[in-house]
Amino acid sequence: AQNSQDVHTCIHCLSFSSANVNSLIQHGKKCPLVYRPDAYKFKFACFACNYCTYQRANIVFHTRKHLGEKPFKCHLCGYRSTQNVCLKLHLRNKHGFQMQKVRGK
Q1: What is the pTM of this model?
Q2: Which of 47, 66, 69, 92 would suit a FRET pair with 1, their CA atoms being 20 to 30 Å apart?
Q3: 18 sits in which H/E element
């Protein structure tokens, strides 16, 4: 679960296991037994289900759900999330924070 080092096994090949998110993602890219509707379009595949995507960020967020990782923490309460955007929404909606956009020069 959250912040654990539980080892997870690929459900497709059953021969790869890891506790590391990046290792699981890399394996999903190359596991020969993963079904992809289109191998070129769906580059990233989940180790734990049939989810596929073409964007690394999507597979990272998706994998965190399976692993129970919530690295984004509210400094005012116990809220945690898998994505920074969810934390920003929480801060605005629950604590009244307005996020300022930083403009580049």
Answers
A1: 0.72
A2: 92
A3: strand 17-18
